[in-house]
Design brief:
This protein has one domain: 2,3-Dihydroxybiphenyl 1,2-Dioxygenase, domain 1. The strands form 3 sheets. It has a 4-stranded mixed β-sheet with strand order 4-7-6-5, covered by helices on one side. It is built from 3 helices and 11 strands. The protein is an alpha+beta fold. The termini are far apart.
Length: 181
């Protein structure tokens, strides 16, 4: 069964339908078709099934079209793809699973304070790569689409191989593979 993240204003969980609802910047994100996911115990369930620590990560960009070109290019070698676009927002996932996901868009989240602005405090996001070749492809594709080099692909010690890019807003995006040391 393929799962899908739905971005809908004022959405509410369906009756008799396994679903989960989260709020982000005043919008409701509804995830339906989550058969077998224990609501309220999600993080434990994901970790037991081999999932990661995160449910989702969101960030604001200045220019969504420019950022989408960059992210679609450099994330493709890592198996990540944009699966949802709605207005000035987008959702990125890997494979058919809808969790974890990355949200990006231009709207100001409700929880921001007056002094907050896109990339005022750049973040660092490290993504797992399946191979050294995927790390190199991530770096090359990101540079072609407006990213800036922040560390060429290379060994970083202890079996860690990584590359770093600055996205169009100055955030440090890394792709890395952990190899047997």
């Amino acid at each position: 069964m393929q799962r899908r993240v739905q971005l809908r204003e004022g959405a509410a969980p369906g009756v008799g339908l396994a679903s989960r609802t989260d709020r982000w910047k005043g919008r409701v994100f509804q995830y339906s078709g989550l058969d077998g996911v224990k609501m309220g115990e999600g993080s434990e369930h994901y970790r037991k099934d081999g999932g990661g620590m995160f449910d989702h990560f969101g960030f604001v960009v200045r220019d969504l079209a420019r950022s989408l070109r960059f992210y679609e290019a450099c994330l493709a070698p890592l198996g990540l793809k944009v699966v949802e676009r709605q207005g000035n927002e987008a959702v990125i996932i890997s494979g058919d699973a809808e969790f974890p996901f990355i949200w990006m868009g231009t709207p100001r989240p409700q929880f921001w304070r007056e002094e907050h602005d896109a990339a005022r405090s750049p973040f660092h996001l490290a993504l797992s790569a399946p191979s050294r070749e995927a790390v190199a492809a991530f770096h090359e594709a990101g540079l072609r689409e407006g990213g800036r080099d922040n560390g060429a692909p290379g060994a970083r010690g202890n079996g860690y191989y990584a590359a770093y890019l600055l996205d169009p807003d100055g955030n440090n995006i890394e792709a890395a593979v952990r190899e047997a040391a």
